[in-house]
Request: fold
Amino acid sequence: MILEKAVLNVKPELQKTFEDAFRQASVYISSVKGYVNHELHICLEQENQYLLLVTWQTVEDHTIGFRQSEAYNEWKRLLHHYYEPFPIVEHYKKIEL
Amino acid sequence: MILEKAVLNVKPELQKTFEDAFRQASVYISSVKGYVNHELHICLEQENQYLLLVTWQTVEDHTIGFRQSEAYNEWKRLLHHYYEPFPIVEHYKKIEL
Reply:
């Protein structure tokens, strides 16, 4: 299992509608092969900053499967204009503690 | 519930022992009032980068309860010399989707 992490800086003038747009977009990411779950968190210290965490079965389920899907076109259409700067996405593997 | 997030950049020459030190330190953070759970993830794209996620009942359980505890002294002693630069810690609240 792989954790995708992205810090999302939402344009302040668009923040009001971002969470609803994200809820709509959630349907698309959830429909893709290899998707496990996702969470959106809002930052307490920095207004307009969100943390997106998505669990995938493999990195390729995200970087290839999702990004080349029709669902990703809908995800982009709903969300990408909210971000400034455009988010850096990284992938992580859980350490057994 | 509050999610604490910190990106940990571990000094390359110390990475070998970091995960074991983190396992030792886990006992201390887990013992504190208001602690719910924690996870450590290693980044696939950037060597020596980790993602720490800790769930707390309230922000103050972390920023006051933990940081003023004896357990935090042990946590610091075990871990703080591994980081360069010192991590920025932020707190998030989950958005209901």
